[in-house]
Design brief:
Shape: globular
Number of strands: 13
Amino acid sequence: MKQKNLKVAIVYNEPHPEMYKMPTKKEEIIDFVPYFEVEKITPMQEYEIMANRLSKAGFDAYTLNIKDNIFNFISDYKKNTPDVVFNFVEIYKDKPYLEMNVVSLYELLGVAYTGAPPMALANCQNKQLAKRILSSAGILTPHFIYFDKIQKSYHHKLKYPIIVKPAFEDASVGIENSAIVTDNKSLKKRIDFVIDHFKQPALCEEFIDGRELNVAVLGDEKPTPLPISEIDFSQMPDHLYNIVSYQAKWDPFHEAYHKTIPICPAKLPKKIEKQAKEIALKAFKIMSVRDYARVDMRLSKDNQLYVLEVNPNPDLTEGAGFMRSSFAAGYSYVKTLSKIIMLAYKRRKKNQFFS
């Protein structure tokens, strides 16, 4: 089947779309000079734009919001039988770990879908397990310790500063300026907060002071690293740590959002660039992600590369994140989406042939 005949369902999960109200600058007080323009667009509108762009490129594309109800997907699949599901389902019923269950249903139905398979999603989301898998393959990650219960005190051998993260979240949820601690008292306070507030264990790891690198990887059986993107912290004020916090990613009215400035391609020594891409490819394969992923790293002051996370199915917003690296590699927004769709379609066709 040719690209122009493919029916593509862009499937996502926004259970309460009516609650989206994009704020205006008049509703917020900004006491700094913004670097990025604040876009007034909802996630639902972004998916509609994606479907429209793909339709103009020859796909028969449409959007489907399952709204925390998997039967909405099953009903649509029976009715429309899409050739490929572009999977954007996240945090099903407010539980990030259920993302793998949705993808497992695709597998049971024999659906061609984009992105990571169930176990890859599960392993990447479990930060402790991911670090152990990466370490077993000889990939450096920051030293860490893991606590699943609130205690009177927390004994460890880590060096301060330490960053405390919820163990099973993604999209930087729970990572904010106060997540970095410098003594035992603040460590206890933060661990207690994470366990109590997020109802999950706390992962504590040594904070690597250095450059933040994002290595995007595109492909399946023959993945290719794309030009490396760096987060420039040079404009970050003294009262904020050099991290890509939740606010830096998602809050356009927070100072961190405007002081974490991406540079792509990153200006790196050739040796470091080559090493970072090799590590990203190795991490991509060892975590069994596919189609598209982003490997986040820190380059320490002594030029050691530490993998922080492997992110399956990262954000595909035009002009941001993964798409920034893809554009630097010479791919347009639509071309990148098309390549991901065709990877999923050809994989399913190949599996059907050998089954």
